[in-house]
Amino acid sequence: MGLETALKECFTALNFFLNNRFADALALLKPWKSESMYHAMGYSSILVMQAAVTFDAKDMDAAMTSLREALQVCQRFRKKTGLMESLANLWYRQPADNLTEEEMHAELCYAEVLLQKAALTFLDESIIGFIKGGMKIRHSYQLYKDCQAMEKVTKDEEKQRSTHIHFRGGVSMGIGSFNLMLSLLPSRVLRLMEFLGFSGDREVGLSELREGATTNNLRSILSTLTLLMFQLYITVILGTADVNLSECEALLKPYCEKFPNGALMHFFSARIAVLKGNFTFVSTHDV
Q1: Do residues 2 and 32 make contact, with C-beta atoms less than 8 angstroms apart?
Q2: CA 205: distance to chain centroid?
Q3: What pTM does this model have?
Q4: Which keywords belong to this entry (predicted)?
Q5: Is there a domain that residue 159 lies in?
Q6: Are residues 129 and 261 in the same domain?
Q7: Residue 60 near residue 67, CB atoms below 8 Å
Q8: Is the same domain home to 43 and 117?
């Protein structure tokens, strides 16, 4: 299956998911999850969300197995490197500027799946699980940085391809999420993380996520949900800034219009109503 076709099918599966048709989304992705990196990533992502909601041991095992398989699928599409090049990258990472479009997407998908696996590893609640999760997160972050560097050296004519906007959207989502989440850490911890190679610039994070959320790409919903979680929950809990309800409503509006019965749309609409003091809206919506 070609990259463009895979992206279109995953868009359809995403629409199923946002419209509460979870079984249909899985059924669409499953036949190709061993052949297509986007199908593999989409299928495992749904299982990860299910595991995160239920915390059931069987769901956790199924999600972890699916993530391992997805990483193997993504690995098949990544650029093959020789021994000397691999050793050189350990000391000085230099993103290749001669990757094919498919190889660039493979790097991005690998980073995203690895990040999900790291998050699931943390739920192991053990020291070993914490260390493994931390190592996976650092690897994922470095891959996102490599993808960002690839984006900067991509030729203008290549950026005109219909599939490139999805690559750019994925980079914005990943870099933005990392910067935003790390910026919430205490200053001493943040300085240590920056020493280890991470970046925690809140303005950069918000800017990247806003760009990802406002362009029509496969991961725009992820950028939108990250911004909504930050504005509607993290900002309120930590008291770090005023909640920008106008921005939240603007971000959510197109999804509410397209998926009026979607559970996520009801959830965030109700949260906005609570923060606005509109408890009548909350009581009349089954969230």
Answers
A1: no
A2: 13
A3: 0.87
A4: Repeat, TPR repeat
A5: no
A6: no
A7: no
A8: yes
